[in-house]
Amino acid sequence: MRKVLFLTYYWPPSGKASVHWPLFIIKHLSKAGWQPIVLTVAEDTFNQKDESLLSEIPPSLKVVKAKAIEPFNLYRKFTGKTSGETLVASETISLENASLTHRLSIWIRMNLFIPDARIGWYPNAVAAGSRIFSDEKYDAIVSIGPPHSVHLAARSLAKKFDVPFVPVFIDPWTDIAYYRGFKRSALTLKTDNALEKAVLRDCFRAVFVTEAMEQDYLTKYSFMKGKSEILYWGYNEENFSGLAPEEAVSGKVLLHAGNIFDYQDSPGLWREIRRRNDSGEAIRIRFIGTVSPGIRNSISQNGLDGATEYRGFLPYGDVLRAMLGASYLLVCATESRHLPGKLFEYLRAGMPILAYGEDNDEIARLLKKSNAGMLLKYGDDPSVFFEAASSFRADNSVVKEYDRARIAEKLGKILDNAFN
User: Fold this and answer.
1) Tell me: the pLDDT tens digits for 315-352?
2) How far apart are CA 128 and CA 365, in angstroms?
3) CB atoms closer than 10 angstroms to residue 365
4) What does DSSP assign to residue 173?
5) Cα separations (Å) of 176 from 13, 166, 214?
6) Helices (H), ranges, 32-180
7) pLDDT digits 0-9 by tens, 359-411
8) Are 355 and 361 in contact (CB under 8 A)?
9) CA distance 372 to 368
10) Which residues of 138-167 are buried (b: 16+ CB within 10 A; e: fewer)?
11) Is the fold of 2-70+115-234+403-419 the same as that of 238-401?
12) Per CATH, the architecture of 2-70+115-234+403-419 is what?
C-alpha cells in the first residue's frame, strides 16, 4: 500500500471545525489504497477541546506531534486576559472592541505574522517531517489549510524529498473573508501573495472545497489550469447513523452551529423572529459555538435576549443531535467563495435551511438541488423562508453524494495520479 503524509495543524482533541475534514477523510483513505500518517502540532493553545473526537482516530494510525511557538499567550497578557483563558475567534477580530490594546493586537496579527499566526510551527514541522521521511519513504504529502503556513511546511518537505504534494484549501489564503475591514501593509500583502503563488506553482494538484474558490484561483493564476480539483467539505455518515435528536422543546428552534462574526449579522432576521414571537409563534434562537459581540448586541436591540440561548462549545455528537432536534438551521456565508462546512451536516440533518450570503450561487444551487432550503441576501425579507419552510425536505439521494467516504475515494484517485 502506498503511503501519504498528512500535515494538519488542527487534530483531536482540538475542537476546531477544520479538524473534521482530515480526520474523517483519513479514516476512509485506506479503502482507496493509501496508508496515511499524520504530522500535527503538539498543542493548540487557542481552541476549545473536544475530547470525544479522540475516539474517531483509527487505532492503527500513526500520529507525530511537533511543538509550535504560538503568540496567543502573549496576546492574552497584552490584552489583559488570564493565562490559559479560552480565546473566542469571533471576539479576537471583532471591531466592537475599541480598546487600544485590542486594535494594536489586530494590526500586529494582520501585518507581522505572515501568512498567519501559526507560522511558529513551520520550522519544527519541517524538522519532524524530515525525521519521518528518514525513517520511512512516503509517496505523497497532503496539507490542510488554514492555517496556510502548513502548506509552506509541506512544500519544503516535498522539495527536499522529491515527492508530490497536494494542498487542500478549506478557505482562501491571501484574501480570506476575515481580513475584510483590516489594514495590511503593502509589504505584507506582497510577501503573502508570493508565498501563496509559490505553493500553488510547486504543488501537483490544489484541492478546493468550493467551486467558487477554485474559479477564483484559476482567474488569479493562469498556470493553475489543469492542476486543481474540487472536494467538498462533506459530512460523515457514520456519525449520524442511529443518532437520536436532542429532546424537543415547546415552540420552534432556529439553530446556528459554529462561529458567527460581526460581518455576518442579519438584523432583518432578528426583527422577523421578534415579529413572529409577538404574534404568538414562539421561536427560540439557539447558538452553539462562539457568537461575536456585534451579533449579541443586534439580538439585544431587537428584544430577543429572553428567546436566545448561547450554549457555547459542545462536543461534536451533541452538536449533531442539536441539528437533528432543531426546527430550522441557520448558516451565514460571507462571500461568493464561502461555503461553510456545516452546510453539509445541515443537509444530512434534513431540517429546513436558511442561508445568508451575497451572490453565493454555489450555496443556492446546492440547496435547490437537494430541496433543503433557500439562500437570501443579508438585506432580504426573511419572511419568505418561514412561509416556504414546510416545503423543504432534503433529498437523501443527493445528500449521499457528500459522504466523506466518497470524498476520500476521490482524494485517493488524485494521489494515484500524483504517484504515477
Assistant:
1) 999 999 999 999 999 999 877 778 889 999 999 999 99
2) 43
3) 12
4) S
5) 26, 20, 14
6) 72-78, 89-92, 100-112, 122-135, 149-161
7) 889 999 999 999 999 999 999 999 999 999 999 999 999 999 999 999 999 99
8) no
9) 7
10) bbbbbbbbbbbbbbbbbbbbbeebebbbbb
11) yes
12) 3-Layer(aba) Sandwich (3.40)
Rounded distance, CA 14 to CA 48, Å? 6
Contact status, residue 195 vs residue 152, Cβ threshold 8 Å: yes
Query: Which helix H or strand E contains 356, and what residues bound it?
Result: strand 353-356
280: left (phi over 0), alpha (psi -120 to 50) or beta: left
For residues 3 and 419, give the distance between their C-alpha atoms in angstroms, rounded to a whole number.
10
Domain boundaries, the chain: 2-70+115-234+403-419, 72-112, 238-401
What whole-number distance in Å separates Cα of residue 207 and Cα of residue 25?
Answer: 13
Cell reading at 246: 436532542
Q: Whole-prediction pTM value?
A: 0.85
* Cβ neighbours, 10 Å, residue 208: 25
Cis ω on the peptide bond leading into residue 340 (within 30° of 0)? no
What CATH number was assigned to the domain covering residues 238-401?
3.40.50.2000
pLDDT band at 107 (very low <50, low <70, confident <90, very high): low
Q: Contact, 212 vs 337, CB < 8 A?
A: yes
Determine how β-strand 373-376 pairs with β-strand 353-356. parallel
- The CB density around residue 317, as the number of other CB atoms within 10 Å, is 14
With CA atoms as reference, report the closest residue to 188 among 249, 275, 119, 261. 119
Nine-digit cell string for 41: 502540532
Cell numbers representing residue 120 in the block: 511558529
Q: Residue 166: enclosing H or E segment and its boundaries? A: strand 165-169
Q: Cα(109)–Cα(117) distance, rounded to whole angstroms?
A: 7
Which parts of 11-67 are beta strand (E)?
34-41, 62-66
Residue 418 makes CB contacts below 8 A (sequence gap 6+) with 140, 164, 166, 204, 205
H-helix or E-strand spanning residue 275: helix 267-278
First vs last C-alpha separation in the chain: 14
The tens digit of pLDDT for each residue in 171-189 reads 898 776 555 666 777 888 8
3-state secondary structure (DSSP) of residue 2: strand
